[in-house]
Amino acid sequence: MEKFKEFLKRKNIEISLKRYGIDALGAMAQGLFCSLLIGTIINTLGTQFHIGFLTKTVATVAEVPYTVGGLAVAMSGPAMACAIAYALQAPPLVLFSMIAVGFAANALGGAGGPLAVLFIAIIATEIGKLVSKETKVDILVTPLVTIGVGVALSAWWAPALGKAAMKVGDLIMWATDLRPFLMGILVSVIVGIALTLPISSAAICAAFGLVGLAGGAAVAGCCAQMVGFAAMSFKENKWGGLVSQGIGTSMLQMGNIVKNPRIWIPPIVCSAITGPIATCLFHMKMNGAPVSSGMGTCGFVGQIGVYTGWVNDIAEGTKAAITTMDWVGLFLICFILPAVICPLLVIPLKKIGWIKDGDMTLS
After folding, report:
1. CB distance 113 to 162 below 8 Å
2. Which three-class secondary structure state does DSSP give residue 23?
3. Residue 238 located in a structural domain
4. Number of separate domains in the chain
5. Is residue 174 in some structural domain?
6. DSSP E strand boundaries for the chain
7. C-alpha closest to that of 205 among 287, 282, 99
8. CA nearest neighbour of 105 among 90, 87, 123
9. pLDDT confidence of residue 110
10. What is the average per-residue pLDDT within 21-33?
11. Interatomic CA distance for residues 74 and 288, integer angstroms
12. Which of 138, 164, 190 is the last residue of a domain?
C-alpha cells in the first residue's frame, strides 16, 4: 500500500476534493469561456453590428459551415478537456491527447456534454499520467492509452451522463417555471454562493444546461454577490475593488469570509430578494449559452448572455421584440438592486457589531 501511495505521489496524482472539485471544475469553466462563451459573443457581435468577417463562413467541415465564432463553439469539448488536464498538471503527451478525448465526450454527451467531459477528462488524464514515461516508447504508449481510455469511456458513459445532467437541469427549470418564487430564491442563492466559493458556478450551469427562468435566477444570484460585495466594500477597496469584484469575481472576498462569515449575509439575502424579482416580476430568462447563467457581471458575460437569448428568441419567433421592460429588469436585477440592497443591509449588521470597518478589505 505504501509503495502504491509513493507511486501516486511520484505521478502527481492527488485524489482530493480540491484537485477535482475546485481545480478541475474551475479550469473547465475557463475552457468553456475560451470556446463556447467567446464564440457565442463573437457570433452575437457579428450579427448585431453586421460585421462581415464575423458572419461569413470561414470553413466548411462535412458540409457544415462555420464562422469564426462557430469554430470556437465547436471546439468547446477539446478546450474543456485540455483545461482540466492542465489543472491536473498533466505531462505534455497526456495534455495534447485530451483534445480527442474532450471532443468525443462532449459530442457523445449531447446537451449535457460538459458534465461528461468533466468526469471522463479527469479519469483519462489520471490514467494517462500513470503510464506516462514508464516505457521507452512513451510517445506511442501514452497517447494510445489516454485516447483509448477517454474515447472508450465517452462511448460508454457520455450519453448516460449527458442525459442525467439534462434531466437534472430540466427538473430545475420545470420547478422554476412551476414555482418561480420559491425556486427563484433557491436557484439564485445556491448559484450565487457557488460563484463566490472557489468552485465554478459557470461550469455547474453549463453542466446542467441551466437556461430559461432558472438561468435568469442564476444570473441574479451571481450579480447579487459580485455587485453586492463591490458596492458594500467600496469604502475599504475604492475603485480598484469595485472593478475587480464587480466585473471580475467576488471570490476575492473568500479570505475575508473565512475570517468573518457574517459579511456574506448581505449578498446572500440580496440574491434571495433579486432571484424571485427576476422570475416573478420581470420574467427574465437566460436563453443564451448556459455557461453565461453562472457568470454574473464577470466581463458582463451574464448580461450578454441574456441579450443573446433575447436575440435568439426573436429569431425563433418566440419573442416579438426587446422591450423597455426587458432592459429595466436587466439593469435593476444585475446592477442597481445589488448596489443598493447590500450596503443598506450592512448598516444594521455594523450597528450590532457583526461587521466592522476593514472586514472586507482586499489584501
Report:
1. yes
2. helix
3. yes
4. 2
5. no
6. 59-61, 64-66
7. 287
8. 123
9. 84
10. 85
11. 16
12. 164
